[in-house]
Amino acid sequence: MAQSQPTYLADPAEKSSKQMHIVVLTGAGISAESGISTFRDSNGLWENHRIEEVASPQGWARNPALVLDFYNKRRAQARQALPNAGHLALVELAQQHRVSIITQNVDDLHERAGSTDVLHLHGMLDYARSTKNPSHAFRVEGDIALGATAPDGGQLRPHIVWFGEDVPLFPKACDIAASADVLLVVGTSLVVYPAAGLVQYTPRTTPVYLIDPAPAKIAAQGRKVFYVEAPATQGVPLVVAQLRASGAL
């Protein structure tokens, strides 16, 4: 694990009373360790479906029944999954510092672990929205059926940002990133935009920790960049322990 020994942070003896704002960008890798599948594990197929069939406006227009069935199954799968050590370590970190999580994941594992400051860039499985008005989102307890409508009469669709759609919460995510004292990037390949661009919105003085079995390489551009070559369940607790011990960089 490159830069994995506990020497890349300040000496734990150099404690500080300053509460840091730690921003965490999480991707599919952290949820995968809880058993939630990611399409990138299967040559672009997601549960034997091509991505454009189930995660695009075109796929929805062609076969809404297929899309609804796909996400009904994903919702059921996510509800059976449990938060893992990566999720729980971030909750522990929030006992000492302000922790803001920006996640590309659509499950609620961060919330179920106990995190309270979570921004879902790509929507949430447990919500549906009206096809007439994207701002009309509703929590759903079970499956979404073809013919199920919102109060405005629009067909309910998954409250998910599909490929080719705008990411309405991205400006808010940029504001959060801009205030980061430390950035952790966990379980993401940094190839899906605009989320991948959030690193560049952090101040140049903000250290960046990339935690993944094969962490993406980024241009340092004067930043402190640390590559922690480990899955989230190992790498996040390691980095969190050092952040809690040092209190300052």
Name its key features:
Rossmann fold, alpha/beta, 6-stranded parallel beta sheet, 3-stranded antiparallel beta sheet, disordered N terminus, 8 helices, 28% helix, single chain, elongated, SIR2/SIRT2 'Small Domain', 11 strands, 249 residues
Describe the structure.
Helices cover about 30% and strands about 20% of the residues. It is elongated. The chain has eight helices and eleven strands. With about 250 residues, it is an alpha/beta fold. The protein folds into two domains: about 1-35 and about 85-120 and about 165-249, TPP-binding domain (Rossmann fold, 3-Layer(aba) Sandwich), CATH 3.40.50; about 40-80 and about 130-160, SIR2/SIRT2 'Small Domain', CATH 3.30.1600. The strands form three sheets. Strands 5-4-1-9-10-11 form a six-stranded parallel sheet, sandwiched between helices.
Brief sketch in words of this structure:
The protein has 249 residues and is α/β, with parallel strands linked by helices.
Topology:
Blueprint: E1 21-26, H1 28-32, E2 45-46, E3 49-50, H2 51-54, H3 57-62, H4 64-80, H5 85-93, E4 98-103, H6 109-113, E5 118-120, E6 123-130, E7 137-139, E8 156-160, H7 170-178, E9 182-186, E10 208-212, E11 225-229, H8 232-246
Parallel strand pairs: 1-4, 1-9, 4-5, 9-10, 10-11
Antiparallel strand pairs: 2-3, 6-7, 6-8
Helix pairs in contact: 5-8
